[in-house]
Specification:
binds adenosine-5'-triphosphate; alpha/beta; 7-stranded mixed β-sheet; magnesium
C-alpha cells in the first residue's frame, strides 16, 4: 500500500533531500560530519534528514527519520560519540530489512544518503546501492509503492565517510575518530610511563582496533614503546626470545621501564591469539620484571574529538554534500578519503573490496600482502618504528665510508614534536652507524666559545639520552632564534671543528631563513658544502615547501581546548561573544583551522585584514543571531582574531566595539591564550609525523654520504625542506623555494593552500557574505 501521506515531491532543480546517518561503533568526530552535512546541505538549498540509530533507523523509519535544521547541530563539533545514535542492526543484513529501508527512504523523499561508519557499515551501503533497482521493483510488485512513486528515486546517491576509531579502511590514510582515539591511548600510556619508570616495572597495554593494528602501531611510534603486537604483522616464530632479548637490551642500556603495546587482535603467525597474559608471563618469568597488564577499554572511544578529527569530519562532510550534488546516474558511489593532507573521493566498492582483501590476506597468512594492502604509509610507519626502537641491528649498519657525523639543531620557538623528531633521528643514526651530534641552543649555542675553546654545547648523543623524548614537549636540546649570519665565520669554523658531514635542522621560519643563509654563504665558506635538510616545526605552520609543520597540530589542540572552555562560559551566560586572539605571526592558518575546529562565527586573518565594513557586518549578524536566540544552549559565539590581523583593530578594540554596538543586548569579552598555544605534551599526530619525516630526512642526507663536495654543491637537493603537499611527502630544494614560494616580507608561503578553507568556516557558521548585506 502507498503511504497515506504519499511521497514528498522532489525538490526543484538539482536540490536534494540528503539523509545522514552514523553507523557501527561510535567514533569521535561523527557529530562533526553530521553538522557539516546538515549545514552544507541547507547552505546549498537542499534539505537534510537525520537518520537516527544507524541502519536500525533506516529499517524502522517513522520518528527515527527527521528533518534537521541549522540550529539542531549547534555546538556539535566538540561533542564525543554520535548524537544521532548508532546501532548494530541485524535486520539490515537481510534483504527484507533493506527492502524496508528502501521504502522508508522513498517515503521521506530522501534521494541521497551520506553514511559515516566503519567497513561493515560501508559494506552494507554498498549492498544497498547494488540492490537498489531490484528493491524498487520489489516494492512496486509487492504494491507497497507504485511506479510513479518510485520513479523519482531511480538513482539513489550514496556517499560514504569512514568513521571508525580503528583506521581499518583501505584507500584512506585516516578514518574519522582514529586520531582522537590515539590521543586518548597516548595520554594513558604517558601516565603509565611515569609510574612504570618509578618502580622499574613493565606494562603490557592492550589497545582496541579489532583486526587492525593501526592504533597499536601508532601508539608504539608515539610513545616509544619497546614492543608492539599487531594482527597484520605477527611477530616472528621465535617472538618470545626476540622480545625478551630486545627488552633486556633496553634494560641493560639503562632503561627503567618497559612498555609493550598489544592490539586486541594480536596473533602469531599461525593465527593463534597472543593474549596479554602470555606476554606478561614471559616478561615476569623470563626477565624477572614486575609486570602489569592494563586494558584501556572504552576510554579509547570516548571524549571530545581532537582538532584533527573535527577538521577531517567537517571537510569530509562538506565534500560529501558536494559529491551528492556532482553526482550523475553514472557516477560511481564514492567514499570520502584523506591521503596525507588532501581530501579525495575514492570508489566505495574498491575501498570495501581492498579492506576485505586485507582480512583475507591475514586469514591466508599472507602478512606481507596484508601490510601492503593497508596503505603505503602504514608500512612506512612500521619500518620506521622498527628502526627507531631496536638498538642493535647489524643488518642495517652501513659501511664505514658511508657513516656520517650528523648535526641536529633546533632553531626558533619550540614546537610540539621537535623532541620526537630528534629522538627518531638519533635512533636512526645509531642503527645505521652514523654519529648523531646534538647542537644545544641553536646557532648561538654552536658558536659559544671562550678563548677560542668551545663551551660544550655540541655533544654526541647516545640512545638512552633521547629514549624518553617521544612524548616530551618543548625542545630538550634547547632552541634559539639566532641565525648563522650573526657570525658566519664562527659558524663555519664550528662546522669544521666538529667535523659535521650533514646537518638536520628542526624549526620554523627562522630555521628556514637559517638554511637559506647557509646556502647563500656556501660560496664563501666551504664548510657549508655539506648536505642539510630542514624539518618544518612551528605552531604557525608558515614554512614554505610544506602544508604542514610539526607542532601546528599540538597548537590547534591546545587552542581548541581553550576555546571549548570559553565557549562553555559564553553559552552558560547565554548572550556573550568572545574575541579570542591566536598566535600565528603573519599567517592566519592557526586562526582558520581553529575556527574550523570549533565552529567560530568569524575568523580574522592577516591575509584578509580587518575592515570597518567587515566589522559592521559581523556585529549586525551577531545582533540578529542574539535577537533570534531563545536561550537555547550553545548560543555563545566565538570570533578568532590572529595577533597580526590588523594594527588598528586589536582584539580588545574589537571586543569593545561589539560591546558598544550591542547596546546591552549582549556582552563581549576578549581572551588571549598566548603561549598556551605552544601546547604541553605534543599531539600524537605531531609525534608520528615527526618520527616519519625525521627518518625520511635522515635517509635523504644519507644519499650524499659518499659524494664529493663538488657533487653536493652541484645538487640543489642537497639543501632541502621536507614537506607534505597535497597527497604527497616531498623534498623541495631550498634554492627553488626561496625564489618561487617564499613571501619573505610576510614570512609565509606565497601560496597558502588552506586559504580556501576560510570560506567553509564562514558557510558553516552562517556568516553573511559581503554581497548579502550592507
Ligand atoms: P566499526 O568499524 O566501528 O565496528 P562498522 O561499520 O564496521 O564499525 P559493523 O557492526 O561491522 O560496524 O556494521 C555496522 C552495521 O552495518 C551492522 O550492524 C549492519 O547493520 C550493517 N552491515 C555490516 N555488514 C553488513 C553486510 N555485510 N550487509 C549488510 N549490512 C551490513
Amino acid at each position: 500500500m502507498p503511504p497515506a501521506n504519499g511521497v514528498p515531491a522532489a525538490l526543484p532543480g538539482k536540490k536534494r533531500r540528503i539523509g545522514v546517518m552514523t553507523s557501527g561503533g561510535d567514533a569521535p568526530g561523527m557529530n562533526g560530519c553530521v553538522r557539516a552535512v546538515v549545514r552544507m546541505s541547507i547552505a546549498r538549498g537542499c534539505e537534510a534528514y537525520g537518520i537516527y540509530e544507524g541502519y536500525e533507523g533506516l529499517v524502522q523509519g517513522g520518528k527515527l527519520i527527521k528533518q534537521m535544521k541549522w540550529s539542531d547541530v549547534r555546538g556539535w563539533l566538540s561533542e564525543g560519540g554520535t548524537l544521532i545514535g548508532t546501532a548494530r542492526c541485524a535486520a539490515f543484513r537481510e534483504r527484507p530489512g533493506r527492502l524496508q529501508a528502501a521504502k522508508n527512504l522513498i517515503v521521506h523523499g530522501i534521494d541521497a544518503l551520506v553514511i559515516c561508519g566503519g567497513d561493515g557499515s560501508l559494506t552494507g551501503a554498498d549492498i544497498l546501492r547494488d540492490e537498489w533497482q531490484g528493491l524498487l521493483k520489489e516494492l512496486v510488485s509487492n504494491k507497497e509503492l507504485n511506479q510513479d512513486q518510485v520513479e523519482p528515486f531511480k538513482h539513489l546517491n550514496i556517499v560514504g565517510m569512514v568513521g571508525s576509531i580503528d583506521n581499518d579502511m583501505s584507500l584512506t590514510d585516516a578514518t574519522i575518530g582514529c586520531y582522537s582515539s590515539l590521543s586518548r591511548i597516548c595520554e594513558m600510556v604517558d601516565v603509565i610511563d611515569s609510574t612504570a619508570s618509578s618502580h622499574q616495572r613493565a606494562f603490557v597495554i592492550e589497545v582496541m582496533g579489532r583486526h587492525c593494528g593501526w592504533l597499536a602501531l601508532m601508539a608504539g611510534v608515539s610513545t616509544g614503546a619497546d614492543f608492539v603486537f599487531m594482527p597484520e604483522k605477527p611477530p616472528s616464530e621465535n617472538w618470545e626470545a626476540q622480545m625478551c632479548s630486545l627488552v633486556s637490551k633496553h634494560r641493560k642500556l639503562g632503561k627503567r621501564k618497559t612498555i609493550v603495546i598489544i592490539a586486541e587482535g594480536a596473533q602469531d603467525r599461525s593465527l593463534n591469539k597472543i593474549p596479554p597474559t602470555k606476554v606478561k608471563d614471559l616478561l615476569s618469568n623470563e626477565l624477572g620484571l614486575d609486570t602489569r597488564i592494563t586494558t584501556l577499554g572504552h576510554v579509547q572511544r570516548g571524549g571530545s574529538p581532537c582538532a584533527y578529527d573535527r577538521q577531517l569530519s567537517t571537510l569530509q562532510g562538506v565534500e560529501a554534500v558536494q559529491a551528492v550534488l556532482d553526482a550523475t546516474p553514472e557516477t560511481p558511489t564514492p567514499v570520502i578519503s584523506v591521503i596525507e593532507n588532501k581530501i579525495v573521493r575514492k570508489g566505495l566498492i574498491e575501498a570495501v573490496k581492498a579492506t576485505h582483501e586485507v582480512t583475507n590476506a591475514i586469514k591466508a597468512k599472507n602478512f606481507d600482502r596484508a601490510m601492503l594492502l593497508r596503505d603505503a604509509e602504514f608500512v612506512e610507519y612500521y619500518n620506521t618504528y622498527l628502526m627507531t626502537t631496536a638498538t642493535d641491528q647489524p643488518r642495517l649498519r652501513l659501511n664505514k665510508e658511508k657513516q656520517m657525523r650528523v648535526a641536529i639543531i633546533h632553531v626558533g620557538a619550540p614546537a610540539g614534536g621537535m623532541n620526537s623528531a630528534t629522538r627518531a633521528a638519533v635512533a636512526y643514526c645509531l642503527s645505521r652507524g652514523h654519529t648523531p651530534i646534538a647542537v644545544h641552543n641553536g646557532f648561538p649555542g654552536l658558536c659559544r666559545h671562550h678563548d677560542d675553546k668551545p663551551l660544550g654545547s655540541v655533544r654526541e648523543v647516545k640512545w638512552l639520552d633521547v629514549e624518553g623524548w617521544a612524548s616530551k614537549g618543548g625542545s630538550e636540546i634547547g632552541t634559539n632564534r639566532g641565525l648563522p649570519d650573526e657570525d658566519f665565520a664562527q659558524t663555519a669554523k664550528c662546522f669544521e671543528l666538529y667535523n659535521f658531514n650533514a646537518v638536520f635542522i628542526i624549526g620554523g621560519f627562522e630555521a628556514y631563513t637559517a638554511l637559506s643563509q647557509l646556502r647563500t654563504a656556501r660560496s664563501d665558506y666551504p664548510a657549508f658544502e655539506i648536505p642539510m635538510a630542514l624539518l618544518p616545526a612551528t605552531i604557525s605552520n608558515n614554512v614554505p615547501g610544506t602544508e604542514y609543520s610539526i607542532g601546528s597540530d599540538t597548537c590547534l589542540n591546545a587552542l581548541v581546548g581553550y576555546c571549548d572552555a570559553i565557549r562553555q562560559s559564553a553559552s552558560a551566560s547565554r548572550r556573550r561573544v568572545f574575541v579570542v586572539e591566536t598566535q600565528g605571526g603573519k599567517s592566519g592558518y592557526v586562526a582558520t583551522m581553529a575556527g574550523l575546529s570549533i565552529g567560530a562565527m568569524a575568523v580574522y586573518t592577516p591575509e584578509e585584514g580587518i575592515g570597518i565594513r567587515m566589522l559592521a557586518r559581523d556585529i549586525e549578524h551577531l545582533r540578529q543571531s542574539f535577537a533570534k536566540d531563545k536561550g537555547e544552549s550553545g548560543a555563545g559565539k566565538l570570533i578568532l582574531r590572529n595577533e597580526l590581523a590588523s594594527k588598528v583593530y586589536t582584539t580588545e578594540v574589537i571586543a569593545n566595539m561589539i560591546a558598544e554596538e550591542a547596546k546591552g543586548r549582549f556582552e563581549s569579552r576578549s581572551a588571549i591564550p598566548g603561549h598556551v598555544q605552544q601546547g604541553g605534551t605534543p599531539s600524537p599526530m605531531d609525534r608520528v609525523r615527526a618520527v616519519r619525516l625525521a627518518v625520511k630526512c635522515m635517509q635523504h642526507l644519507e644519499e650524499y654520504a659518499e659524494k664529493s663536495r663538488d657533487e653536493v654543491v652541484a645538487d640543489k637537493m642537497s639543501m632541502s625542506v621536507i614537506g607534505i603537499k597535497g597527497a604527497k611527502v616531498v623534498f623541495g630544494s631550498m634554492k627553488d623555494l626561496e625564489s618561487t614560494e617564499t613571501d619573505w616580507k610576510a614570512r609565509r608561503p606565497k601560496d597558502e593552500s588552506w586559504l580556501k578553507l576560510k570560506a567553509t568556516v564562514d558557510i558553516l557558521s552562517g556568516r553573511p557574505k559581503p554581497e548579502d548585506c550592507c
